[in-house]
Amino acid sequence: MFTRTVVVVVYDGFQLLDLAGPLDVLATANHAVGGPAYRLITASPGGRTIDLAGGASFVADRALEEMAATTEAIDTLLVVGGAGAFVPKTSSEVAQQLPALARRSQRITSVCAGALVLAAAGLLDGYRATTHWGACDHLARAFPLVKVEPDRIFVHDRSRWTSAGVSAGIDMALALVDADLGTEIAQLIARQLVIFVRRAGGQEQYSAQLRSQPARTPSIRAVQQWLPEHLTGDLTIAALASRAGMSERTFARTFRAETGTTPAQFIETLRLEAARRLLESTDLTVDAIARTVGYKHGKTLHRVISRRLSTTPDRYRQHFAATAVHSQLNPT
């Protein structure tokens, strides 16, 4: 069996979940195929014990400088994220070793703020990339040669793979396994790790509720919180204004001023997100999904998906839906 060497770079202040998630995916892949599909090596500056964000300690397998000086081929170079990525001294110490490692790597990847370290090493110049939503603006400002794509779970551009925060590293690792070992193994791992739906990279990092500003006015904020569970109800401006105890004009004006979007746009986004979840996780027809999220006709949902996602419901389902996997890791 072909074994792929994966070198994971850690440093002071890294986030443990950024490491544990991808490593668990790759280790589970080894178990799933009954052999060493991946050889996992952790490397730290100087080979020293690392202080994690939160106070625990981590002992790496190798010294980063030692790994950079060898001629050993690397399949995947992975830089994890964490608060240390924002510390210039820490980031610089790691970044100066990365080009030597990158020249021997088939894939160069990062989780969360690890993209900042890759960028500091010049390894994302001219590439599309993402990071945690809270760091995307910083990445774009500090490294203008990087083509930052905010709101993405992960981005794959040629030999570069970058992911958003924490759990997105699991999604990216599953995508790597998919590319290496096939969709069935990747789906099998997702089930073993109890990941409900394996998300693809084109999906957004966070929901409409998080993207929009919470209204300052309590009655409008209450409407925002009420809406996701009542998408099939009467959602006219008149009904929503009545729920908020306002006139229609005042409600519409205040909602937009405080949330950054109109009530109609907010409702459409909520319905679209609900429809996407159903397309990904159920076998319901498009017409049934449309009714479930508050549209009278499937054609309306079709138009919304076409306009907002530049695809059709059927194509979206084919691309993003979880594939049923009937085999088990330990078949009897």
Automatic annotation (TrEMBL):
The keyword Cytoplasm does not apply. It holds the Pfam family HTH_18. GO terms for molecular function: DNA-binding transcription factor activity; sequence-specific DNA binding. Residues 221-319 form the HTH araC/xylS-type domain. SMART domains: HTH_ARAC (SM00342). It comes from the Bacteria. Keywords: DNA-binding, Transcription, Transcription regulation. This is Helix-turn-helix domain-containing protein. The lineage of its organism: Bacteria, Bacillati, Actinomycetota, Actinomycetes, Mycobacteriales.
